[in-house]
């Protein structure tokens, strides 16, 4: 079997990078869901869940951002635009996640309504980053 690839073709993520990229989306989405649960029930434990989920998303997402930065400088100019967009979206996700973590560090009721909005935007950015990152996979590339 021979793999067909051209110099400008999309390549899949490295498996470790794919694993790191898999963390932010479910963790930030879980934080959004627990923020919505806190907003409707006022049980403080939901705010605590959000804080921990955001911390986990920042941890995994931080390594994904670093990996994307290294890939940005390693790859050739043919894919710089896509890699730069991927890095910028990941960096924006991580930055807003950090702001979200700082908002969640306040008293539970003081986080509302900013926490819900920040969690929603962070989750959306995590979804866009995952979409861009995983879109390098191609089907039918091997004959």
TrEMBL record:
Q: Name one Pfam family in it.
A: DUF2231
Xref: InterPro entries: DUF2231_TM, UCP029509
The question of whether Transmembrane is a record keyword is answered with yes
Keyword terms of this UniProt record: Membrane, Transmembrane, Transmembrane helix
The record lists the membrane-crossing segments as 12-32, 52-72, 84-103, 115-137
Residues in domain DUF2231? 14-134
What this protein is called in its record is: DUF2231 domain-containing protein
| Record lineage | Bacteria, Pseudomonadati, Pseudomonadota, Alphaproteobacteria, Hyphomicrobiales
């Amino acid at each position: 079997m021979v793999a067909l690839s051209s110099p400008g073709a999309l390549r899949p993520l490295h498996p470790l990078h794919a694993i790191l990229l898999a963390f932010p989306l479910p963790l930030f989405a879980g934080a959004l869901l627990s923020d919505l649960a806190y907003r409707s029930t006022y049980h403080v434990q939901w705010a605590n869940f959000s804080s921990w989920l955001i911390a986990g998303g920042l941890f995994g997402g931080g390594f994904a951002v670093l990996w994307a930065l290294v890939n940005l400088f390693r790859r050739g100019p043919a894919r710089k635009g896509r890699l730069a967009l991927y890095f910028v979206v990941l960096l924006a996700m991580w930055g807003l996640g950090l702001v979200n973590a700082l908002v969640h560090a306040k008293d539970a009721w003081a986080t509302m309504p900013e926490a819900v909005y920040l969690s929603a935007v962070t989750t959306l950015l995590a979804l866009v980053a995952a979409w861009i990152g995983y879109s390098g996979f191609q089907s039918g590339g091997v004959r």
